[in-house]
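Title: Prediction job returns without error message
Component: structure pipeline
Severity: low
Priority: P3
Assignee: unassigned

Description:
Job completed but the reporter wants confirmation the result is attached to the right record. Sequence as submitted:
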Amino acid sequence: MAFGQPSGPSASFRQVETLLTLVHEAGHADFRDARGPLGLTQRQAAGRFTRDEVTALIDRLEGERDSRDGEGAPPVAPVVGGRMSAAERSIRRMPDHLLAVELQRRGWTVTGP
């Protein structure tokens, strides 16, 4: 096997589309945007995955989504137009309690959901 080549059969189009939807729900514009936070390789950032890789990532992102939903947090809204600024991405990743503290520091009144 050559260096950097996938070690297994390619993922189906449907699997990659499902993964892309979950990546959008997690607050990323595309695979390249999610490369660092999800630990993707250059090949994966270009949208090329093996079946095993895409299955593992789908399971991971669904688990993270379920744990967010279980905490009473609202689901992440899909990105309109596929673009989100770095500031918006960092705010979405910020824990609720830290965001509330920062808003209170700026003079806002904060109440829980």
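Comment from assignee: result matches the submitted record. Residues 68 and 75 are 8 Å apart (CA to CA).
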